[in-house]
Amino acid sequence: MKHLVKMSDLSTIEIQQLLDEAERFERGESWKTEGDQFVANLFFEPSTRTRFSFEVAEKRLGLQVVNFEATNSSVQKGESLYDTVKTLESIGIDALIIRHTEDNYFEKLISKINIPIINAGDGCGHHPTQSLLDLYTIRKEYGRFHGLNIVIVGDIRHSRVAKSNAETLTRLGANVYFSGPREWIDENNPNGTYIELDQGIEKADVVMLLRIQHERHGEKNGLTALEYHKQFGLTLEREARMKPGSIIMHPAPVNRDVEIADSLVECERSRIFQQMKNGVFVRMAVLKEVMTSNKGEIGKWQQYLKMGSF
Amino acid sequence: MKHLVKMSDLSTIEIQQLLDEAERFERGESWKTEGDQFVANLFFEPSTRTRFSFEVAEKRLGLQVVNFEATNSSVQKGESLYDTVKTLESIGIDALIIRHTEDNYFEKLISKINIPIINAGDGCGHHPTQSLLDLYTIRKEYGRFHGLNIVIVGDIRHSRVAKSNAETLTRLGANVYFSGPREWIDENNPNGTYIELDQGIEKADVVMLLRIQHERHGEKNGLTALEYHKQFGLTLEREARMKPGSIIMHPAPVNRDVEIADSLVECERSRIFQQMKNGVFVRMAVLKEVMTSNKGEIGKWQQYLKMGSF
Amino acid sequence: MKHLVKMSDLSTIEIQQLLDEAERFERGESWKTEGDQFVANLFFEPSTRTRFSFEVAEKRLGLQVVNFEATNSSVQKGESLYDTVKTLESIGIDALIIRHTEDNYFEKLISKINIPIINAGDGCGHHPTQSLLDLYTIRKEYGRFHGLNIVIVGDIRHSRVAKSNAETLTRLGANVYFSGPREWIDENNPNGTYIELDQGIEKADVVMLLRIQHERHGEKNGLTALEYHKQFGLTLEREARMKPGSIIMHPAPVNRDVEIADSLVECERSRIFQQMKNGVFVRMAVLKEVMTSNKGEIGKWQQYLKMGSF
User: Fold this and answer.
1) Do residues A261 and A239 touch, judged by C-beta distance below 8 A?
2) What is the predicted pLDDT for the residue at B214?
3) A301 in C contact zone (CB under 8 Å)
4) Among A12, B35, B66, C116, which is most buried by a count of CB atoms within 10 Å?
């Protein structure tokens, strides 16, 4: 694995191997990089979970970390993403974690950049480590994906998580359903079928709620928060009708009493904060994989350094 | 000590023990945490001294540090303090340093959060590590608190430092006086008595100046900076009338020529920059105490991790 | 070397020694500081290259790093640069890297501050580590400075790099020429002579392009980007007339198709990204020099610490 920019680049075997590796880290297995290896976190959008989850993962692996924030950088002077990334490569950064507002920002980079890029979210596009931590959470619960009913609820059309998860879960044998406002369902998405929420709730092994992205929409499809909650949210009544043992997931940050009733956020079925915990193990696995499988090239670069011929 | 949120939670014995520990660190004693332990600094208000003093203290103890800034985080998406803190706990942070604009923000957190919180300032409320470093500075000078005359000058009513210090110094046997504009004196505060500045100056073993908080008031009680300085500031004339050996303290940042004449900031009596130096040792002591006395619980969490049952 | 604030403070021997040290670092030689030594990066202007180049250099030397950003600090409360710097010294920072908008900001500091300051750019003044990396890049190419024709193109009058480089290169025996809009040439600068760009291009061993500083000018001397490029930029046509083996340099960030044609940024002659790479080695050399030559004093401070007499 050179880069990790989207889930569809990973085979199901590679996915299972990454989840296995994450499990070893959760069990307490330790692995540290040798010598000084540098990772840069480039976040062009605000983030708490993903940003700090990566930083903790990086430091647990013994990586040296530099945190790039667009507001204090030469991006203010109009520098392009490519030039910024090339700069970081030039000063000796060994891997990049990037979140950017632009869909598929990485397409322009990966052919020209010699260090691995891990996509931490691109516009309405992809967010592969979020998908992996979702998969990890499900596998941890059920030990399998095959035959599980996963109901994804919310703005399927704009959610980077929904699209990646639907595609991957379908590949892994799960039955994916989409629910929420009809205008937000992508009818052309072949990896899931529409289901009424009250029907989906009863069928689901996993209810996967999506965040209402105020910062993208400015409104909830014309509904007030309360109306949205009643029609498309996980209310106390709906939770009571879920199957025994079925679980609730949400990528967070949660809008309490909108996507989910406040008191359900930490209920017994909820895996919301466990997802965050799992995120660290999954990111450690991805980082280890990326740092080791690019070893050859990195070694080469370091040799160039020694030869002074780079 | 699970958390450190306000001075009144500490017994006088605990206070003396923390100051003893700080003294050992000042003398050069070293103590490092074992394995990777993570601390997050969450500052919702600007800060230089407190923020960097904590970061230096943390790193001297071998802690892994992540710096959370509200402006680049999901707080921008409306995430609550509780959810932010719970997130950081979930991703494996072992202790939190928090400064927040809201008085007593920690009340809502401490019952629900399993990791220690060190309060680095809440609104007009508390700032226990500032109090501890002030106590340390006084004890270093006089070797005791009993019988000392401490004159606190400025906006007693809104100062988090004034209130904590007055309460603690009174408990420790010092005589606390308040001075400054009458409107800023809290008549209901039982831990100090009002004194005219010119009288207080001559009586004081410690003149403890408070910062005029432009960012909270916008004005200095209707006075110009020059008028304030003449009436309630430490002028050259007043300093000349201080007792031999008595000292000047200020939590900083100083408004030069307002609370104190510019040339007195680094005069022989001034302990202003020494207070900052002492702050690092005091914070090392607090961090060590918090990290070790919660060891049981943290160990448990790590065991859960290994069992995969969390 | 106590501080490094401007190139004219360095003798030619000191310059060559720093470049030799940088070369050793490039060859893979390792040197780590002993114990916990702290460096603070204070950037009052946006920066990518310089800021991260320093951070990587610091971490490669095993230094503990704190990153100060004006926007989240007490500078917001009106704290002066002196008080900020004195604060960082008080809390135990061993060296400061400062970029500031004000010309010669360091003059007010160096007599009063006991820890070394490395200037990372002051207003339109100096930027010594950029000069050193430029020198390193040239020496690496030609093995000497004597007799080389260096043509500096752009806003000589406002460029901190241009002034330092012209002075130093002249001292080292190179022939320095200035080119670009006549209004931007400083006729009083004794360290270079004006040359028409098309003549300079053919004569140059090094074409050193300067960045158009939109953030300072707001305009390009009344010209559109295209007009500037045609008249004063390195076009494909001009590059074709350069001498065999001659090289192109630019401190970056580059305005593509303004100072230089987009496709030339990574052409064979270009050393632009190599300059960035070299910057890390040069900064490691400067940091090592500053940390070791101040060792006496730092040691003294640590002794004071132990004696508790500071």
Assistant:
1) yes
2) 64
3) no
4) C116
